[in-house]
Amino acid sequence: MSEVKEKVIALQKYLDSQIIGQKELVKKLIITLLADGHALLEGAPGLAKTKAIKTLSECVKASFNRIQFTPDLLPSDITGSDIYIAQRCEFDFREGPIFANMVLADEINRAPAKVQSALLEAMAERQVSVGGKQYKLPNLFMVLATQNPIEQEGTYNLPEAQLDRFLMYIKIGQPSAETERKILKLVRQEALCTKEQNENWKEFSQTVGKISVEDILKARREVLSMHVSEQLEEYLVQLIIATRQPEKYDSSLKGNILFGASPRATIALDKCAKINAWLEGRDFVTPDDIHAVIYDVLRHRIILSFEAQAEGITADDIITSILKSVPLP
């Protein structure tokens, strides 16, 4: 095992100790980080969405900013703006909170269209435009957004173009009774001791220390060497094609999908499957690696027809049917 992989595994272990009962969430956040992508987390309040993101940022030697999205937010509140300097009779650009390696966009669906447009440029182009000039964002740039599916008053649905820019759309469910008891125990322990006294943090910081930006870039290069067979590559492509032409694979899906996944989904599924295999300790990708990430990669990229929505069919239901209908290699 390479040195950088040991660091990433240690990071995963520490996050699992702090975000109780959310192993899949932790794993997918790490996959997003290594895939150079952005993630959208959806879940009811109190399910550790923000805590997971903040804890991840604390383990990385990188800048971190949090933006609380509200309906009265302006694009300049995110991107920054030109400030007039009277002494020099000229304008200076002051960077906004988007200029960080890791950005937490809390309750992203509360922001109006102009703010969403500014954020889309940052996510897609890794730059912001202010006063007719473009300003580049850091080499390591990751947006981790959250949204609450319960409260709909004062919210704005994210446009499909912006949803497609998220590598993963991660849904978080309620914990079990056993997990709830472990959460209570952890919170009580945290109230009694500082972070430096936390045994899990001691172990992580002493053996690894914070992971640097260079470590993350090295891990990304390692993932590129993962082997994908031609048969598995064809299987991956057929899964995407099935979202565009579902009737060729399952006649019951006809009329349920308005628009299927784009080639960006193919690239995302390939990246995420490779990283999943890398985290599992293999140097090759299997169908299980694809299945482990396909729901998070595709659920926001499949646009359902009105008839499907009226019948209560979800994107996850469509993906399940596709997995059953596309033959394994």
Task: Describe the model.
The protein has 329 residues and is α/β, with parallel strands linked by helices. It has 2 domains: 3-212, Rossmann fold (3-Layer(aba) Sandwich), CATH 3.40.50; 225-325, Magnesium chelatase subunit I, C-Terminal domain (Helicase, Ruva Protein, domain 3), CATH 1.10.8. It has helices spanning 3-18, 23-34, 49-58, 75-79, 113-125, 160-163, 177-192, 199-207, 213-223, 230-244, 263-279, 287-298, 306-310, 315-325, and strands at 39-42, 60-61, 64-68, 80-85, 90-95, 102-106, 127-130, 133-136, 142-147, 168-171, 211-212, 257-259, 303-304. A 5-stranded parallel beta sheet has the order 3-6-9-1-10. Strands 2-11 form a two-stranded parallel ribbon. Strand 4 (80-85) and strand 5 (90-95) form a beta hairpin. The two termini are 29 Å apart.
In short:
The chain has 329 residues and is α/β, with parallel strands linked by helices. It contains 14 helices and 13 strands. It has two domains: 210 residues, Rossmann fold (3-Layer(aba) Sandwich), CATH 3.40.50; 101 residues, Orthogonal Bundle (Helicase, Ruva Protein, domain 3).
